[in-house]
Design brief:
With 153 residues, the chain is mostly helical. The protein has one domain (2-152). It has 8 helices and 4 strands; from the N terminus they run E-H-H-E-H-E-H-H-E-H-H-H. It has a two-stranded parallel ribbon with strand order 1-2. Helix 6 packs across helix 7 (114-123).
């Protein structure tokens, strides 16, 4: 699991520590990394560089708002290109709908500022169970698990 920044990585770490998450990933082990708030293509490049080749699935978390700001007219095309590049390298992008802080507010409520919402998300990761973000994270894990079961049949 690879986050865009340290806050994302800390949240991902908290989320994967939940018993309910561990239930879905009981035969998995995780490594965590993060870029340092770069462009989306820089984050994908850093994610590629951290891969060892032994991973079943690599999830890379990126804020969509940066892509929209960098490519205001063509962000959808750039998003597609990044997803194709990531897929070709065994990486699944989990887009934070706009930025991670906004995603966290969708679950926790609007009363938190950016720094506080990150802390609240980390400390209350259990509130994310069954959220849209939760489902987007688990989808590629479930798909990978299904592929492994089918391959062993």
């Amino acid at each position: 699991m690879f986050g865009e920044g340290k806050r994302d990585k800390d949240f991902i770490y908290a989320l994967t520590g939940l018993d309910k998450f561990k239930y879905h990933t009981q035969n998995w082990s995780f490594t965590y990394g993060n870029a340092h708030e770069c462009s989306a293509s820089d984050i994908i490049r850093a994610c590629k560089n951290e891969k060892t080749g032994a991973e079943d699935v690599v999830l890379c978390f990126i804020d969509l708002d940066d892509l929209k700001n960098d490519f205001s007219q063509t962000w959808k095309e750039e998003k597609r290109k990044l997803e194709e590049d990531a897929f070709a390298n065994g990486i699944k992008i989990i887009w934070f709908l706009d930025k991670s802080e906004d995603e966290f507010r969708r679950v926790l409520g609007d009363e938190f500022g950016d720094n506080r919402v990150n802390r609240e998300a980390r400390e209350n990761a259990d509130k994310f169970i069954n959220s849209d973000l939760w489902n987007r994270i688990l989808e590629p894990i479930r798909e990978s698990t299904c592929r492994a079961v089918i391959a062993n049949v």
